[in-house]
Amino acid sequence: xxxxxxxxxxxxxxxxxxxxxxxxxxxxxxxxxxxxxxxxxxxxxxxxxxxxxxxxxxxxxxxxxxxxxxxxxxxxxxxxxxxxxxxxxxxxxxxxxxxxxxxxxxxxxxxxxxxxxxxxxxxxxxxxxxxxxxxxxxxxxxxxxxxxxxxxxxxxxxxxxxxxxxxxxxxxxxxxxxxxxxxxxxxxxxxxxxxxxxxxxxxxxxxxxxxxxxxxxxxxxxxxxxxxxxxxxxxxxxxxxxxxxxxxxxxxxxxxxxxxxxxxxxxxxxxxxxxxxxxxxxxxxxxxxxxxxxxxxxxxxxxxxxxxxxxxxxxxxxxxxxxxxxxxxxxxxxxxxxxxxxxxxxxxxxxxxxxxxxxxxxxxxxxxxxxxxxxxxxxxxxxxxxxxxxxxxxxxxxxxxxxxxxxxxxxxxxxxxxxxxxxxxxxxxxxxxxxxxxxxxxxxxx
Length: 446
Ligand SMILES: [Zn+2]
Hints:
Number of strands: 16
CATH architecture of the largest domain: 3-Layer(aba) Sandwich
CATH superfamily of the largest domain: Zn peptidases
Structural class: alpha+beta
Mean pLDDT: 94
Bound molecules: zinc ion
Shape: elongated
Strand content: 15-25%
Largest sheet: 9 strands, mixed
Radius of gyration: 25 Å
Low-confidence stretches: none
CATH class of the largest domain: Alpha Beta
CATH topology of the largest domain: Aminopeptidase
């Protein structure tokens, strides 16, 4: 069945989008930011690492208003991913899913991940305000440990959800204090279940990993400068660009800096600099500004001011949406590598392309709602990356002030966040439609 065969009415989707309430969205985001808020005297920001006490409290706080509203159920799976389900008319159909993550870097901002979760819950409030019931259920997901700063690697929750066989390898991972992910996961599951039992929440009993999902649309801040620089409200993300990491070792022979004439020198530093120069020149002159090439680490030994280097190790991070461009970087590395040198591939992640029909639905939403927008690539990884290999997936970006993220200064004007949420609402309403009126169900004031 085609994803868009049964979409709901565009006029109704328009109404849902316009029921998005900027003040309510901001209040939820500010309330969420209070969980793990760092005192402004030290520069502000949010410290809410994966499955910390702050994150568990934030999860309870976010789900609580819905857990007590008719037509909603709360669930948690074996990767500690939390779901808020808004029931559909046909409860057996697979859900339309949205969401993101609410864990942060050790010191992060208030919007990375948090925005996508708050935006999804705001769409629930908008639907409730209008008294509309969708045909399919809609789930808002809070994925576990997207950031990967407390437990490595990142994206654990969304990877385990889409590839359950990978969960086992995550369970033994320990944080800096020696606590394993399995123990933190168990505590998170007990915490939410305990709260549900105490307060009599409606509960989703069956939340297996890899359960069918109709499609996934994630809203996120851009974390880059493009939308702001172009004065645009929404980015319709078509792909997450591919990345390859290389470690290059160049060998030479140590000798005295003053006594060794040019013809006798085997200078690892000189050879490595020539090679690095060739790579950076390629990036600067190839005429393709989609290529991102970074030499981020450089180590030289013995590192003495008056000794010719016998060894240089440096890294190359190359990113581009087309594999051919990354192949060209690899070819250049191989040809520029001095005799005796070595190249290791540390990471090779191909470009993840989002579903074309969903990406065009996102553009349609922006056109229908008269939001300024463009197609773009994501330079960073997101939970949508593993989801893209599992079900039709797309992303919407809101601009980031000065492109800053993973920093207390991370910010977006609230009107831009509301605009992106309206585009999300329009997409979810159509994907979960057709919409029918139910008894009006006003969001409570809590
Ligand atoms: Zn994020």
